[in-house]
Amino acid sequence: MSCMTERPVVKRTARAILLEGDTAAPRMILIKRTKPGEEPYWITPGGGMEPEDATVVEALHREVDEELGAKVTDVVPAFVDTVPHTAEGPAGADGTEGAECAEGAVGVKVQHFFVCRLASMDLSRRHGPEVDEPCGEYDVVRVPFTREGIASVGVVPPSLRAYLDANIEGVLALLADDLG
Fold this sequence. Notes:
Blueprint: E1 9-20, E2 27-34, E3 41-43, E4 46-48, H1 56-68, E5 70-86, E6 105-121, H2 129-132, E7 137-144, H3 147-151, H4 158-173
Parallel strand pairs: 1-6
Antiparallel strand pairs: 1-2, 1-4, 2-3, 2-7, 5-6
């Protein structure tokens, strides 16, 4: 079987590189996922687009509200990740869905990562499938937005972890007052 050069996009997600606090020492808000019988991993808030979402940014706002009871500002595109998406189901902890051109591959999932600032958060407002019918635990954690802080937890997908490690200063520059 040979791979097609162009693969259909079968799923799009919106995820927040969500920063809070002073720009001199910002913290990143993550969700620690602990599933029964698996090692924990840390993900950025967000999820898949739904039919009612007119745009990827609208999906981001909905997901952040569902998962954190939060509002965000200064939403700036930062990073896009494309991974194979198979018919078998949701992504694994590493954010991948099987080998490229693997049997059962139906296309790709495009993950849009936006850097944004936390405007407000009320965890008592959390709602949606992660809260109503949880599979394991969804704990909100804060880590310093530094190479050391990100390395201290198992942020997935690995492509995001590598991007952040190489671009801490650049990500912060996306929120600078003089960006335009």
